[in-house]
């Protein structure tokens, strides 16, 4: 991957993460409150699952 690819990936990440706060700010705020109540282990599991899912998608693209 080149630097341009990394910038494109980062830009896409920002676009995707901005969709929910733009479209439904109240739902986003409520979801964020719920995340703040999760225990560390639960957050780690969500993070690990997200990373594995992302790796799977990247592997499917190759």
From TrEMBL:
One Pfam entry name: DUF2065
Record's keyword annotation contains Hydrolase: no
Membrane spanning residue stretches: 6-24, 45-61
Alphabetized InterPro entries for the sequence: DUF2065
Keywords in alphabetical order: Membrane, Transmembrane, Transmembrane helix
Signal sequence region: none
Protein name: DUF2065 domain-containing protein
Organism: Thiobacillus sedimenti
């Amino acid at each position: 991957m080149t630097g341009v690819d990394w910038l494109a990936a980062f830009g896409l990440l920002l676009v995707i993460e901005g969709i929910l706060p733009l479209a439904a700010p109240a739902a986003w705020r409520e979801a964020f409150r719920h995340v703040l109540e999760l225990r560390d282990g639960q957050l780690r599991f969500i993070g690990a699952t997200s990373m594995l899912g992302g790796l799977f998608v990247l592997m499917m693209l190759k």
